[in-house]
Specification:
This protein is α/β, with parallel strands linked by helices. Helix content is 26%, strand content 20%.
Length: 444
């Protein structure tokens, strides 16, 4: 059967539905499903909070007997394997649907093509690839973690008219207006984790939570690149760590070098061990395998082990410490002799300390993937943004430009519309009052 405009219309609706639970379905993808009979939607659902039940089983249950002979529109290929729940393909067969229309084939090797084959063997007509580009966009985080073993990374920058992202010595400086800031809050709400450097964490003392009314519970995990455990115990991040998780990324075996201002590459054989080129290199600690929240549901075996090869698209060269992102001891930094006490104090406050070199995102990102983090928002500062850009590990750029002028002591943006890296395509422009948002993406 050929694809019709009706198929595209219903699939577009399923894709919109799938976005409802982005960032809230644990390691499972947020999938949308519609059951349509005689042009009327008789069942609809999105993957439940925490990852299950899956969308198909919920939509079929809502449709009931009306599902027999109907068409199911699903944004991702129905699963075909037994996990904590039976396969969705079996449910579609049992309810007697006549046709299944799919946007994206699942790259998970336990599913890829098998769900489609199972349906066809049962006599169900299957059409795949409907609005595939749109479907892949909505599933970008899941697809990236499946195919690249790392989270999908979004870099967000707000740049003034004179090319600055802040002013030295003044902490947080408002650049965009309220409409643009509300949009950023929505982005945080659909993202698993948000990341900043220790310089930004100390200078701005941010909360990094979602503050839009009704969305507060959707605040992402907060991650700080903090090699010497310099995050003050009195910071807002530490004070709220028991309400919203905080992970501090520290460097265990390079802490002494970093305290002395030396690059990690000064360690013997550091490059091979950091990138995985040395076969003796393993995960820094057993902590990396932990989930983002031990009380939250887990996927049907969707966790990943830390890969030993270099992450796809990563820069294999060692990256030196970020001058300005690592404060000295006078600003709260810890000496090597009191690293253990700093860690104990942070953990007592509810902060989790992860030993995984913060200046090697090609190692850090797979470590985060093992913890069920599929999407990561990088918000600052300038040097942290440059770190991910130079490593080739940014998938999407959201560049806000505002008419505000920062002037003297401005902190220069690491990026502007005139120097977007190669490989990014401009996806569109939106206006929020006087602020302009340009979005750029790499192909998945």
């Amino acid at each position: 059967m050929s694809i019709t405009p009706h198929d595209e219309r219903f699939m577009a609706a399923a894709i919109r539905l799938s976005r409802w639970h982005l960032g809230r379905s644990a390691t499972n993808p947020s999938v949308g499903c519609l059951i349509v009979r005689d042009g009327v939607i008789v069942g609809r659902a999105v993957t439940a909070l925490g990852g299950r039940p899956h969308a198909e089983t919920q939509a079929l249950a809502e449709a009931g007997a009306l599902a027999r002979g109907a068409t199911a529109y699903v944004t991702l290929e129905p699963c075909s394997h037994h996990g904590r729940t039976p396969p969705c393909s079996e449910a579609l067969i049992a309810y007697g649907v006549a046709r299944v229309v799919i946007s994206v084939t699942d790259p998970d090797p336990r599913v890829s093509g098998r769900g489609i084959a199972m349906l066809r063997e049962a006599g169900i007509e299957v059409d795949a690839g409907v609005l595939e580009a749109e479907g892949r966009h909505s599933l970008a985080a899941y697809l990236t973690r499946q195919t690249k073993n790392r989270p999908y990374v979004t870099l967000k920058l707000a740049v003034s008219a004179d090319g600055m992202i802040g002013r030295e010595g003044e902490g947080q400086v408002a650049i965009t207006g309220s409409e643009a800031r509300a949009r950023v809050q929505a982005l945080r709400a659909e993202t698993d984790a948000i990341l900043v450097g220790i310089g930004t964490a100390i200078a701005d003392d941010p909360l990094l939570t979602v503050r839009s009314p009704g969305l507060e519970s959707q605040s992402p995990i907060r991650i700080i690149l903090d090699p010497s455990l310099a995050l003050p115990l009195t910071s807002k991040l530490v004070e709220t760590a028991r309400q919203v998780p905080v992970i501090v990324v520290a460097s265990e075996e390079t802490s002494l070098l970093e305290a002395e201002g030396l690059p990690p590459s000064a360690l013997p054989d550091y490059r091979g061990r950091a990138t995985g080129l040395d076969p003796s290199f393993g995960p820094p600690t057993g902590e990396i395998g932990k989930r983002r929240d031990p009380n939250s549901p887990v996927s049907d075996g969707d966790g990943f082990a830390l890969r030993q090869d270099v992450v796809q698209g990563a820069n294999p060269d060692p990256i030196s410490p970020l001058v300005g992102e690592m404060p000295g001891r006078a600003e709260g930094g810890a000496s090597p002799t009191d690293m253990d006490s700093r860690r104990a104090a942070l953990e007592a406050a509810g902060v989790e300390v992860l030993y995984c070199n913060p200046y090697h995102p090609e190692v850090l990102l797979p470590a985060l993937a093992t913890r069920g983090i599929s999407s990561l928002l990088v918000e600052g500062g300038a040097k942290t943004a440059r770190l991910f850009l130079e490593a080739g590990l940014v998938d999407r750029i959201q560049l806000y430009r505002a008419p505000v002028v920062i002037g003297e002591r401005g902190i220069e943006s690491p990026l502007d519309a005139t120097d977007i890296p190669a490989g990014f395509a401009h996806k569109g422009t939106l206006m929020f009052g006087e602020d302009r948002l340009d979005e750029y993406e790499r192909g998945l």
